[in-house]
Amino acid sequence: xxxxxxxxxxxxxxxxxxxxxxxxxxxxxxxxxxxxxxxxxxxxxxxxxxxxxxxxxxxxxxxxxxxxxxxxxxxxxxxxxxxxxxxxxxxxxxxxxxxxxxxxxxxxxxxxxxxxxxxxxxxxxxxxxxxxxxxxxxxxxxxxxxxxxxxxxxxxxxxxxxxxxxxxxxxxxxxxxxxxxxxxxxxxxxxxxxxxxxxxxxx
Length: 203
What we know:
By secondary structure, the protein is an alpha+beta fold. It is built from five helices and five strands, in the order H-E-E-H-E-H-H-E-E-H.
């Protein structure tokens, strides 16, 4: 949210949004907040789309004018411009961790209607690098927290099972003790009954 407010204050972006993708999912999620987020995103490129692969390869901000003029983007030009038109995006900033696109910042035109300058794009690249690390750390923390909750649940279930088994063993032990008492009384009674007739016979 702070990143989006920085983009709003420093670059005067008419609208901005951060999209991110969890490691175990292929769908994009939208960061809450942003400036007029209802305008964005249109159809979001999938993680295996040619546009996503170009964003990873370039690893830096792509401005609409670059996509229109630079022949390196000829293979994705139509897809990229179509997406940018539908989402009203002027600049895409990839958030890359390793060789994986974990997110993308999308910025609309500036409120002052000036084009994004080279300095603006350099700033976005620096913000994108920092945001990539922050996003990766955040997603990693979330994953660790989920694993911690799963472990706590397993521990609680295990404690319940142990308590249940302990109670079953306690009851079984009481049953065995009762059987042992009955056996002792039975043998005492039998022994007494066997000794009494013998005593009578001997007398």
